[in-house]
Design goal:
The chain is of the alpha+beta class. It has one domain. Strands 1-2 form a two-stranded antiparallel ribbon. A two-stranded antiparallel ribbon has the order 3-4. The chain is flat.
Length: about 120
């Protein structure tokens, strides 16, 4: 897997704009061309997801951080952790069977297995 969490080995920093945060090693925002974005993949073959799509599932993130890592966000723990710490834990949630992963990558619809007397059977 290449740098930046993608298996295409692409350096997305060249598309970064705005302020650069050395602590999180990220730019304020990215303007990645569609043809480059199509080459990027995330954990376990998931399509590259912009962070705004991930953060749209805050309830799932909160529940998963508690169930998977024992992290209670209502305790104020995030004031004691870096943005990198949160990013790493959220990215880890995308590599396991988590609420967040299921919300972002719902299972495909069932495919007909067989036709019995004109009725499709689904698994």
């Amino acid at each position: 897997m290449g740098e930046g969490g993608n298996d295409a080995g692409l350096d997305i920093d060249q598309y970064g704009s705005g302020d650069y945060d050395p602590e999180t090693q990220t730019f304020e925002f990215y303007d990645i061309p569609a043809e480059v974005l199509a080459k990027l993949t995330g954990p376990v073959g998931m399509t590259f997801l912009p962070w705004h799509r991930i953060w749209a599932h805050l309830d799932e993130i909160e529940a998963d951080l508690h169930s998977e890592f024992g992290v209670d966000l209502s305790s104020g723990i995030l004031r004691q952790r870096t943005a990198r710490w949160l990013r790493v834990h959220v990215e880890q949630l995308l590599t396991i069977d988590s609420r967040l992963r299921r919300a972002l990558q719902p299972p495909p619809p069932p495919q007909p297995q067989a036709v019995v007397e004109g009725v499709a059977q689904y698994v």
